[in-house]
Amino acid sequence: MNNVFSKFATLTVAYNEERFIGGMLEGVKELHNLVIISKPWNGIHNRFDNTEKIAKKMGAEVLLRDFNNPAEERNFGIDLLEKQGFKYIIIIDSDEYYLKKDIKTIIEFIEKTQVDFYKTGNNVKAFWKNTEWCFRQNHILMCIASSKRLNTNQLGGRNISTSNVMFLPEEIYLYHFSYNRTNEEMFEKISTRGFSKGLQKDWYEEKWLKWNPDMKNLGPVVPESIPYVFRSEEIPEEIKLRLNKKYD
Fold first, then answer.
1. Torsion of CA 235, 241, 242, 247, to 10 degrees
2. What is the domain-level CATH number for residue 120?
3. Has residue 205 been placed in a domain?
4. Do 206 and 139 contact (CB within 8 A), yes or no?
5. Which one, of 134, 138, 136, 137, lies nearest residue 213 by Cα?
6. Residue 218: which pLDDT band, with cuts at 50, 70 and 90?
7. pTM to 2 decimals?
């Protein structure tokens, strides 16, 4: 690990993400990776899958501990990584993929700019059901100085109390596979993770199962204003290979 990379660690909170976490970790394997596995904060716990096994196989530090909300879980991880000497924490979900070369560019960019918070620009591709459809997301908090903490009263768990942030270069893409799931996988996700205050079944039946490309307001959490879904461009071969690779 070179001296620049040694200042950075990644932090992932995970629950039953065996299909995605191996590919995510492969993209950041030059860094120290901390994966925290908790029972659902607000949903129904029914099982643990092979997320822990895969994360350990990929060389991650894995912590098993239960938390009340995602911000509490992430702040615990930031505390731990700060004590280990890391200066910046890249917050990355199990189903968020970056190109390996882009991780290097992100780190070089942060080294040059040195502010406390970084967000993605308008360049997040979130895939819907499969890789043929996607929608745009923007302004996701993706890196935080280890001396700072997240708001604990926000649903998403990646919220901060300042607008003093810097956006990543527009050529950096985040490929987000949170909605790239089968019907069974999506129903389990919204049930176990407590989305939308008990309205999971209504959302699943009315928005997920009945979806057509002209529908809007698709998200199961507030805000629900996901724009219309459009046909995606070809995803990079590196991302495709990691997405389809078996890691267990």
1. 160
2. 3.90.550.10
3. no
4. no
5. 134
6. confident
7. 0.94
Question: What pLDDT digit, counting tens, does each position of 38-48 carry?
Answer: 999 878 898 99
- Order the strands of the 8-14 sheet from edge to edge: 61-64, 32-37, 8-14, 88-91, 141-145, 117-119, 166-167
Could you list the residue range(s) of the whole structural domain that residue 83 is in?
5-178+236-244
| Preceding amide of 236 cis, omega within 30 | no
Q: Concatenated DSSP letters for the chain? A: --TTGGGEEEEEEESS-TTTHHHHHHHTTTSEEEEEE-S-SSS------SHHHHHHHTT-EEEE---SSHHHHHHHHHHHHHHTT-SEEEE--TTEE--HHHHHHHHHHHHHH--SEEE--S-EEEEESSTTEEEEE---EEEEETT----SS-SSS---S-S--EEPPTT--EEEEEE---HHHHHHHHHHTTGGGG-HHHHIIIIITT--TT-----SSSS------EEPPPPPHHHHHHHH----
- Checking if the pLDDT of 200 tops 80, the result is no
> From the centroid of its chain, how far is CA 247?
18
Number of domains in the chain: 1
Q: What is the pLDDT at residue 42?
A: 78
